[in-house]
Amino acid sequence: MELEVRHLRALCAIADTGSLHKAARRLGVSQPSLTTQLRRIENSLGAELFLRERSGCRPTPVGRAVLSRARPLLADMGALVAEAKAAAARESGPRLRIGSTASRALPGWLGRLRRRLPGTDISLHMDVSPNALLRKVAAGGLDVAFVHEVEGCPLTVPDTLAVRVLVEREPQFVSMARDHPAAAAAVVELADLADDRWIVDPTVDGEWEGVLRVLSAAGIVPQLLHGDYHTAAALIAVGEAVAPCQPTSDPRGDMAIRPLRGDPLAVRLLLVSRPGEPELYGSVYGDLEAAYRDVAAGSVAYRQWLRKQKAVTVP
After folding, report:
1. C-alpha radius of gyration, the chain, whole number
2. What DSSP assignment string belongs to 219-261?
3. C-beta of residue 149 within 8 angstroms of C-beta of residue 158
4. How confident is the model at residue 315 (pLDDT cuts 50, 70, 90)?
5. CA distances to 72, 95, 104, 123, 276 from 113, in Å
6. pLDDT in tens, 39-97
7. % the chain with pLDDT above 90
């Protein structure tokens, strides 16, 4: 078997995450498939590249030697692809490729961009994983990405990317059934949710770890469920679970959204871009900031929180 770029990418993912499970999730493959691929790579090279331990995977001396050569090769390949795509873009006309995690600011942001950049081909790529979007920007597949970073769970931001902070610390509220006992209060105590099941999406980087950390710090042994946003909404509405949510979330008739006392769970909102064309990306950031402020101003609960914190001036 001859080594290919995908093999080197798999080795680096295992080394970066320290886990076959996490590496498989990053690469978008199953863990058994990645395990089989690693075994074939090791058989081809005639050496074990990682020690499998209870705490995860650790490179062997041979593994470290292979990784030291693999990383610059992947970086060069990424640069080659990015330069080729940039050249193709220049020939086909201006375009702006945007990546984002979920946000109510997206419609307003895109509208502002289209009005300010007529004739520009603007595309949107959504992903629940901020780290996946960052990697796509670094590889040249996207120009900018609007992502969130869960407090206590830092993202892996490639050194080649420029980062602008939109909001340094945005609290996460909690969504629950409209008739949940805790919904009667304007601000919810974590203790009032001690007996509830919390539903989180494990594919959202840091969400599982962030919720677990906050609840454990409050002395709560949580009942955690895995589910996507659509499943979560259905379960929350009938009282089967509660979940963290963005403070700008659109209210529903069958759900209540409330802030948590002391704002224990928070995220940082970032706009990440490739270097170059600072004026363009500065304007893109300005459009995003304006769209986000519009959304914040339209959310009663968040507007009240912002005024209380004196963090941002809103109408």
Report:
1. 22
2. T---EEEE--HHHHHHHHHTTS-BEEE-TTPPP-TTEEEEPBT
3. no
4. very low
5. 35, 11, 15, 11, 18
6. 999 998 999 999 988 878 899 999 999 999 898 888 888 778 777 776 666 666 678 99
7. 51
Using a 10 angstrom Cβ sphere, with 0-12 exposed, 13-18 middle and 19 or more buried, the burial of residue 315 is exposed
User: From CA 9, how far away is CA 82, in angstroms rounded?
Assistant: 17
- The token pair at 221 is 């042994």
Give the integer Cα–Cα distance in Å for 163 and 150: 16
CA pair distance 298, 283, nearest whole angstrom: 23
Query: What per-residue confidence (pLDDT) applies to 86?
Result: 67
Judged on CB neighbours under 10 Å (0-12, 13-18, 19+), 46 is exposed
Question: How far is it, in rounded angstroms, from Cα 100 to Cα 168?
Answer: 17
Give the chain's mean pLDDT. Answer: 87
Say which amino acid occupies 5. V
Our CA angle for 132, 244, 211, nearest 5°, is 75
In angstroms, the Cα distances linking 187 to 193, 260, 303 are: 12, 6, 14
Q: 3-state SS string over 168-187?
A: EEEECEEEEECCCHHHHCCC
* Of the candidates 207, 292, 293, the residue with the CA atom closest to the CA atom of residue 243: 207
CB 183 within 8 A of CB 255: no
CB of 174 closer than 8 Å to CB of 204? no
pTM: 0.70
Q: What burial letters (b/e) apply to 125-164, b meaning 16+ CB within 10 Å?
A: eebbbbbbbbbbbbbbbbbbbbbbbbbeeebebeeebbeb
- Tens digit of pLDDT for each residue in 249-285? 877 889 999 999 999 999 999 999 987 766 777 889 9
β partners of residue 200: 226
pLDDT at 213: 92
Q: Write down how long the chain is.
A: 315
